[in-house]
Amino acid sequence: MDGFAHQIIAGIATGGIYASVALALVMIYQATHHVNFAQGEMATLSTFIAWSMVEAGIPYWLAFLGTVVVSFIIGVLVERLLMRPVQNAPVLTHVGVFIGLLLIVGNMTGWIFGYTTKVFPSPFASSGPLMGGLVSAHELGSTAVTLVVLILVFLFFRYTSLGLAMRAAAYNPRSARLVGIRVGWMLALGWGLAAAIGAVAGMMVAPVVFLDPTMMTGILLYAFAGALIGGIDNPLGAVIGGFAVGVLENLAGAYVVGTELKLTVALAIIIGVLVVRPSGLLGRVVTSRV
Predict the structure, then answer these.
(1) What fold characterizes domain 2-122+136-276?
(2) Which pTM does this prediction carry?
(3) Transmembrane stretches, by residue range (predicted)?
């Protein structure tokens, strides 16, 4: 029973990281109606930036905040310089840009920082497991950080005028322009927030999986599965789906398929959702008259 409880709690901790990345995917999907395949590579680059700051002697939390700011700026620049020129291009053009961004950022990260695995520090060091051995200090701390980020994002979009403007620009750009909202800059800010949220997820997962240029590949797949479960156009659904995938992955890996085949759980979830309910549990079903 203790082992089962540990898998549940550990799944919630990793699910919080998946929820963060899933939320970032949904934010960009709402703005562009495309999935950013390079979200994981962008988060990995941000994590390497944080590692460089820590190695240079900057205190962890100061490096954490600095990385979030730098990641936000990178996200805005990507939207302004790469996505803005092709905003009215065909779907395949957007897919090509995302794949190109994935390859460029991934290879640039390896070229700058190297391909050797690095140890990323955890700010939640402890002498031993907590809660009777059910959870580690890092799992508890990373869950708390993830929840704080998700709550702040919810409050931002729900109660601030800028957040409401960004939601309006994502849902109905034409009407938003008619009321004076600068839709282009709202979309750029959305990219910046998605990059910043991805950076937080990268910094939380790096102490567990260690730091290398391919660190986020599997995590992006789990996050995509979580976004599909909750609804690729629903931020709350993506968060719920991310936590659900984290728990399902841990339980399936421990009691069903084994740790070597855990990634197949995400693939099975993606296929199952697309076949049974493509809009997800909380997503909108969009119909059009032909």
Answers:
(1) ABC transporter involved in vitamin B12 uptake, BtuC (1.10.3470)
(2) 0.86
(3) 6-28, 60-79, 91-114, 134-157, 183-204, 210-229, 236-257, 263-286
